[in-house]
Amino acid sequence: MLARRRPKSHIVNCRFNAQYPALMRLPRVKRIIARLLWPLMPSWLDEGRRIVQGPVLRRLINKAALQQSNFRRVLNAGSGESGFAFLLAALPGVEQLIETDIDVSSGRARVSPRQVFFGSSLTNIPLADRCIDFILCSEVLEHIPDDGKALDELTRLLAPEGWLLISVPTPPAVPDPAHVREGYKPGDLHRMLQERGLDVLETQFCMYRSFRWLLVNWERFPYRPRVLTRGASYLDRLLPFGPPMDLIVLARSRPGGM
Fold first, then answer.
1. What is the model's pTM?
2. What's the rounded Cα separation, in Å, for the pair 251 and 72?
3. Helix or strand or coil: residue 175?
4. Which domains does the chain carry?
5. Among 223, 238, 176, which residue's Cα sits nearest to residue 39?
6. Which residue in 70, 92, 205, 229 has the fewest CB atoms around it within 10 Å?
7. What CA–CA distances, in Å, run from 210 to 23, 52, 84, 136, 178?
């Protein structure tokens, strides 16, 4: 099982202190004022995405952890800002958490001393065959023209009975000029995974009407305070109405490969 989480108040304080280190150098009264104004501080979309996706990813990662006691090498494929790295670092037995993206900033914060960062394309990852026990690939596949080659590369890296947790947009999704396709229907993604020797274990959805509204109107807001982003995201979790925009699949490689 995953390591026991600390009290939520501790997590909130640690995240606040890590994100705003300059505030910790202010006199106490100014720090109190800054914290009171925290809901009005600017936000970003990934903050909302973590709120709506995070619980689903956590539950599926926990499901894998209940069936396997040791995950020596874990890969965050297309890690972006490493928003979910803390979930991967909590897997039991992790010796190395590998973070790769097409552009890896050297200044990004670490959540674990076991993290290793390097830049690479998902269609050509410089790692040995069958060396990874768990792969997270979140919101990446829709950016890659040759998505089949990217999946070939990920399955090449998976150890026998290794795990792949993947999230992608699913139609009807909000248009994004950075995407080369709108998304994937569950049956299409299942077929692509099964053709590569993976068994689909569970399928989940997230990002409903409230989060869609946030995405559609994001550029129209002259200012985007935290209370807006977090409010819409928590409402989306509480009231999952309308068609989902995000598809999350947990799959596992077969003992003998394909």
1. 0.85
2. 18
3. coil
4. 1-36 (no CATH), 43-253 (3.40.50.150)
5. 223
6. 70
7. 32, 10, 22, 25, 22
